[in-house]
Design brief:
The chain has 278 residues and is of the alpha+beta class. It is 53% helix and 10% strand. The strands form 3 sheets. It has a 4-stranded antiparallel β-sheet with strand order 2-3-4-5. A two-stranded antiparallel ribbon has the order 1-8. Strands 6-7 form a two-stranded antiparallel ribbon.
Length: 278
């Protein structure tokens, strides 16, 4: 009795299924959710554009980060270092030609240039979507094997020589081709694992720690994070960690071929890059 032939491995130029439906849905929901949360969060930050460490923080206290105006000039101060930011942060000219003094300009905040109450409503409403979306995605990825198969970093991939090889390949813009392009390299795995198990959970926990109700119900959470002002600082740093991830992600999409990459995240179908001729 003859055995059925094994399916051949796809090669460069073939169109294959790449992203599952759950991954695609979560990706596009996150695009909207994180955009709204970032812009409404910047509006909330504008109400008190200073960050502290510890339990308490108010205008007379020493902030480790501050964005504001020194006279008519915008300035960003981080520790002892002060940088001029006029036109970008602190002091800027709005669309009607009026000079405004807010940490972040109106084009970067929602729902308006300055509306703290509404910004909080937007931020908290989308925080539920972020939290439950992350939980559902992680549970489903655990069930369908996505985390084990695609995100888990093997012992061989943890070797410094392997990581350094991938760093050099990325620096030379030598991306995987053929069937190898279907697998995440170790740098991608580190980035995605850092977001899934680091930045996003920490964003949610620090957000909870800043809530007076949660502070009363779970005081241990605030204590673990070093106080409410420390939680606010970590929340801000995680937000800009996610911004950095998105910027790098978009650059890599452009370098790898934006049409093919975006199509795969919409339809699931991806055309494998053709093998290079060495």
């Amino acid at each position: 009795m003859s055995e059925a032939p094994e399916p051949s491995e796809p090669k460069g130029g073939d169109t294959v299924r790449r992203h599952r439906l759950s991954t695609r849905i979560w990706h596009w929901i996150n695009l909207v959710t994180l955009t709204v949360m970032l812009m409404s969060g910047l509006m909330i930050f504008n109400a008190h554009p200073r960050l502290y460490w510890g339990q308490y923080g108010a205008n007379p206290d020493k902030a480790w980060l501050e964005i504001g105006a020194i006279g008519n000039a915008g300035a960003l101060r981080i520790g002892p270092v002060t940088l001029p930011t006029t036109g970008l942060l602190g002091v800027y000219t709005d669309g009607s030609g009026e000079v405004q003094q807010h940490a972040f300009p109106g084009w970067a905040t929602i729902p308006t240039d300055y509306d703290l109450a509404s910004a909080r409503l937007w931020h908290l409403a989308f925080a539920w979507i972020l939290a439950f979306g992350l939980l559902a995605y992680l549970l489903w990825s655990l069930v369908n094997g996505h985390l084990r198969r695609d995100i888990h970093i093997t012992a061989r991939e943890w070797r410094p020589s392997h990581i350094w090889h991938d760093v050099k390949e990325h620096a030379r813009l030598r991306f995987p081709t053929g069937a190898a392009a279907l697998k995440y390299n170790v740098l991608q795995k580190l980035a995605y694992a850092g977001v899934l198990f680091g930045l996003l959970p920490l964003m949610i926990l620090t957000g909870l720690a800043m809530s007076p109700a949660m502070d009363a119900a779970w005081p241990w959470l605030t204590q673990v994070l070093g106080g409410r002002q420390s939680a606010r600082s970590i929340h801000f740093l995680c937000a800009f960690g996610l911004v950095a991830f998105v910027v790098v992600h978009l650059v890599m999409v452009v370098l790898a071929g934006p049409i093919n990459e975006v199509r795969s995240m919409i339809t699931g179908w991806y055309r494998l890059p053709r093998e290079r001729r060495e």
